[in-house]
Amino acid sequence: MNDIFQVDYLPEKKEIRINIPEEVWENIDTVIMTRQFQEELVVEKQKESEAEYNNDCKRNIQRKND
After folding, report:
1. Residue 7 to residue 12: CA distance in whole angstroms
2. How far is CA 21 from CA 29, 33, 36, 65, in A?
């Protein structure tokens, strides 16, 4: 399996981009990030259909608040 990945830090966007091979993407559910090994931020992968549903819900909530 190709497990080489790339991490780019984009300070102007306050963003980190992680580029991973398809085989790795298919075999992970969770990404854990730490800040100098003190705090953990856990990000879990959603199915695309769940992500679309959640984005639709967020849009509807935002419209109600406007």
Report:
1. 15
2. 14, 19, 26, 40
- Matching residue, tokens 């819900």: 57
* pLDDT tens track for 9-39: 999 999 899 999 988 888 888 888 888 878 7
CA dihedral 56, 61, 65, 66 (to 10 degrees): 10
What is the pTM assigned to this prediction?
0.52
The two structure tokens encoding residue 18: 């992680």
Q: Give the residue from 29, 61, 58 showing the smallest Cα distance to 45.
A: 29
